[in-house]
Amino acid sequence: MAKRGIAQVTGPKSIKLGEAVRYRVSKIYRKEDDEKVPQARWKLYVKEDNGFRELRPVAGTPPKVGSETTITITNQQLLGKELLLEAYLYAPEISSPPGILIKVEEGAKKIERVDLFRADDTPIGRGETVKYGQSITAKVITLNMPYEEVQITLYEDDESGAGHHANNEKNKIASVTKRLDKDGFTMHTFNLPIDINRIANAYMDGTEDRYHEYYIHVKSAQGARTSDNINVPNPDYIFPEQEIEAVEITVKAKGIGTDPMPDTGKSASIVNNPPEKEEKNSCVCKQYDLVWGNKVSCEFRKKVVEICTELWGENRKIEMANGLVAVMNVETAGSFKVHQIMGKPLKNVNSITKDDFWFYRKDKLGKIVSKKSRAVGLIQFT
Predict the structure, then answer these.
(1) What is the pTM assigned to this prediction?
(2) Degrees (nearest 5) of the Cα angle 311, 313, 319?
(3) Helix, strand or coil for residue 19?
(4) Contacts of 209 (CB under 8 A, 6+ apart)
(5) What is the pLDDT of residue 294?
(6) CA spacing 20 to 30 A to 374: which of 42, 215, 266, 320?
(7) Mean of the pLDDT values across residues 174-198?
(8) 103 and 15 in contact (C-beta within 8 Å)?
(9) Do 86 and 123 share a domain, yes or no?
């Protein structure tokens, strides 16, 4: 029976580890298969003692299809091996021809990549968050560097842009020298203890950055490679003050529900309790069910309602009083103290100094570059 499909593949008969090389279909058995060549599939095999074994791609990788293809060998274990690359339309013959035999040779030495993982071996994606007290593992993959040494260093990043910067040498956290295995691979785990937070804040006031950025830099005699950055929440970060323009609060009347009595089939007489007598001389503040009202005194509640009545009228006094009390709660962090300074813990009024009323922003050298005043609790209502 006459053969059909692809008869020959053309391309280099040697390939260096890490090098990208292109191959193409150069001959077919029958002319009627010419239109099918763009749908040709490619397979790669390695020669072993008992024949050829297929080298399967990483799970999820789409199959190579087309009249041409490019291959790159990165597996250090294939160095010195003989490969067979074949294109087919119907079924592979696993022979040469139609396939082409390729010798794998040593290529340029280089650190291919640095991948980061969590303690449970799940990968850490670019810009993902890791907390102080956790660990990160760096996995180093190289080409043509078996048994060579690499230096693996953890840095805190104070510079813009990707990659390693010489200015970050002052932010070196930890460093170790490791020897690669026969496949040019090694790994190392760094801990992120909470006390290294002081290095990240060494030239700041401890409140500047919501996140600290870290990366791992791997260096050898042949070159270097840097991992993606990871974000670590700054435990000393102080959230900036927010200006509250308006608070809209809808208050529904409170009600008490009861389960209905079960139907027993028996009649029952109903006794209505007599209406409760209104307490004489009860304070008017008890009529005002304000949000956060239980945090303040009766006189305070009456004063708030009085102000809102004057500003917005009788019909809107409770609605606006609720909004006003809500704003007070935010500005005083729930203390409702006249001397509460926003963004700072409540202090004895006699211990407050003028410096407490300012929020300072400093550069990395400790120089004050700007300042703004802090809001003071209920000062606008006193």
Answers:
(1) 0.53
(2) 90
(3) coil
(4) 200, 234, 237
(5) 72
(6) 320
(7) 86
(8) yes
(9) no
Which CATH number goes with the domain that contains 23?
Answer: 2.60.40.10
Q: Tens digits of per-residue pLDDT, 219-231?
A: 998 889 999 888 8
Tens digit of each residue's pLDDT (9 = 90 or more) over 76-100: 889 999 999 999 999 999 998 999 9
Q: How far is the CA of 339 from the CAs of 83, 152, 322, in angstroms?
A: 80, 52, 22
The verdict on residue 247 lying in a domain is no
The conformation of residue 34, written as its DSSP 8-state character, comes to G
Average pLDDT of the residues in 305-319: 83
Residue 346 domain flag: yes
Does residue 146 have a cis peptide bond before it, meaning omega lies within 30 degrees of 0? no
β-sheet with 110-117: strand ranges across: 110-117, 135-143, 185-191
> 60, 86, 105 — which closes off a domain?
105
Residues of the domain holding 59: 6-105
Strand order in the sheet with 6-10: 6-10, 20-28, 68-72
Q: What is the largest CA-CA distance in the chain?
A: 114
Assess if residue 18 is contained within a domain. yes
Nearest to 199 by CA among 236, 152, 228: 236
Q: Please count the structural domains in the chain.
A: 3
Q: Is residue 23 part of a domain?
A: yes
The letter for the amino acid at 120 is D
Are 294 and 368 contained in the same domain? yes
Give the chain's radius of gyration (CA, Å). 37
pLDDT of residue 377: 47
- Same structural domain for residues 95 and 137? no
What is the 3-state secondary structure of 101-143?
EEEEECCCCEEEEEEEECCCCCECCCCCECCCCCEEEEEEEEE
Last-in-domain residue among 233, 250, 271: 233
Q: Which two tokens stand for residue 29?
A: 């058995």
The pLDDT tens digits of the residues spanning 249-284 come to 444 444 333 344 445 554 444 445 555 554 455 566
Closest CA to 245 of 125, 186, 326: 326
| Coil/strand/helix, residue 306 | helix
What CA–CA distance (Å, rounded) separates 80 from 57? 20
